[in-house]
Amino acid sequence: MREFLELARRFLPELLQGTKVTVELTSICILSGLVLGWGIALGRVYGGRIIYALCTAYVELIRGTPLLVQLFVLYYGLPDVGIVLPPLLAAGIAMGMNTAAYQAEYFRGAIQSVPKGQVQAARALGMSRLQAVLYVVLPQAMRLVIPAWSNELIYMLKYSSLAFIVGVPELMGRANLIAARNFRYFEIYLLVAAIYVTLVGIAAKMLSFLEEKTRIPGLSSLG
Amino acid sequence: MENFGFLIRELPWFWRGTVVAVEVLAGVIGLGLAAGLGGAVLQVYAPPPVPALVTALERFLRGIPPIVLLLLVFYLPWNLPPLAVAIVALGLCSAAYQSQIFRMAIQSIDRRQTEAARSLGMSSPQTILYVVLPQALRRAIGPWSNEFSSQIKDTSLAYIVGVVEILRQARYVISYTYGNSLLVYGFCALIYFVLTRAGNAALYRLEARLWVPGFERRGLERRV
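^ inputs. structure came back:
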């Protein structure tokens, strides 16, 4: 045990540098996925036939294949057609595109859980379709989606570890470098596990705080 | 177009990889189902210190990425073969999620049914086995199918510990056909897409057959 603590003391600073990259990578992906995801969700609910078909195809394609394969296509596959992406960018794009599809599904569910009558009422009051969506549907849908969206964020936080396979120096990547120097693989990965559990705990706390902060009495997904 | 010829020639290797991926999936789902159901029953029915311990373990397993668990199991002192490492690690991850699904399903069965069964003279295990579980398991099918489809995709992670599944075979094919990465990985994506689609279709059929009117249907899918 003392030996383990000594190991932790020695390598924690280096692991925390990797943690910083993990957090950055996750934040960028989750935010770009958020923007793209809303676009796709709105396209699937309110878009015309062509937009609906395109958005649906995208979501089905991404959700039907593993993130690891998507990452390999981008990182190892694209150079075949002359597009060479650096590891961090490849991982970022793969994760962002992946999470966008899943987020879109959560958003679509949230949009559709707002009763149709509300849009009709808004239209009857003289609001345009755009106004009804913007001022009536979205403010509610965005709140309703927070619990599902929190799960997605936590998933991305954990799955950002895939980036180490293409050589991004995030938490797992750093851990591998350290372990390759001293062969203490098991202990190092145990430390990494502890860091991930802490990160996930913090993220969950922050998101339930956000949910509490933005809550409107009476509005719930069960309604 | 001549590029596609080699894909057909290499088809047996992709087939072998797919068989291994399905083996991993079967092991992971089997272990996850057994451990997950066991964990859920312990969480609900075991005496005081046990539920807290099981819950702590579940939280830990859900808080770490599957890759970290894969590597932890890989570097255990016992030198397990890669396939066993993949099944144990991914199976434990899946067990944590499945136990959550089963626990919620068990808790959704009205308490009064248990009381009624007990008052009719059934023992506690009998009540769980004949009254609670037959209903709870049906309720769990929807969320459980989501877990199943995400596990199909998660088998790709077995690549990391050296299991010769689809992606590893793809790597071999790429290295002795000199390149063609885009085509080969694109083909892998297609294999996974077909697998996921087929798995989902089979589960929908199972769900429809076992579904009891009034029970909840499948919701949104879990990640990966």
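The CA atoms of residues 205 and 211 of chain A lie 10 Å apart. The longest helix of chain A spans residues 2-46.
thumbs up if we can close this ticket
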